[in-house]
Amino acid sequence: MGNSDKGEVSIHPNNNDIWVRGFLIEEGIHSSIYMAKMIRRPTHGPRINGYHPVMVVKTTYASENYDLLNEKKILDLFTDCPYIIQCYGDDTTIDFDDDGNKFVFYNVFLEYASGGTLDNFINNSPSYNESKEIKQHIKSILKGVEYIHKKGIVHCDLKPDNILLVKEREDDNFFVAKIADFELAKMANDRTNPTPPRGATFYRAPECWSKHKIQEQCSDIWAVALSRPFNIP
């Protein structure tokens, strides 16, 4: 995306910088995720709520921002849930490549999860099924899913890769599992805007493969049940 993946560079061309983009964390199909940091408190311009020295920014081309706009809209419903990744705001920025070509990006600012994904935690913890952490993570995931469903949302892509571990206390290694990645989420029972099943095929419920291709809140429950933390021997 322009020259933004070459180390840490400013994404504002007007020297009135609010934040800078850091290294690339993950490049996805719909968007890319970078480390980011605020270099001063926002007074105008970027719509960032509060001051967050360290955060991540999810970025896509402004002309292709439908999924990321959808995620921002849905995350704004979850500002008071401690089991869902928090959204700090969004903005649109301009960047130029080495040839002077102009690119317009849409950016969403998100809570930084220093513990990585739940999938990584499981893979790096041979005895994870015996740990107190995994039991606490299971409780957090279930509470998060319950909250999402009470708000009338279907996540559509629940899996260990989309559960992030956020360090809640700087003085110890206590992490909270939080549900992330709502780009594919939708309103439950939305008959006015039907969509085909989406998300990782392994976690899709049987009804997603049926003639009517249904994907509703019960499909999220199926996906959670298939996740490894819920299959502890």
UniProtKB/TrEMBL annotation:
State the Gene Ontology terms under molecular function: ATP binding; protein kinase activity
Cite the Gene3D superfamilies for this sequence: Transferase(Phosphotransferase) domain 1 (1.10.510.10)
Question: Per the UniProt entry, what are the Gene Ontology biological process annotations, in alphabetical order?
Answer: signal transduction
SUPFAM superfamilies for the chain: Protein kinase-like (PK-like)
Q: Which InterPro entries match?
A: Kinase-like_dom_sf, Plant_MAPKKK, Prot_kinase_dom, Ser/Thr_kinase_AS
Give coiled-coil spans as residue ranges: none
Which residues does the UniProt record annotate as the domain Protein kinase?
Answer: 1-233
Q: Quote the protein name from its UniProt record.
A: Protein kinase domain-containing protein
Species assigned in the record: Cannabis sativa
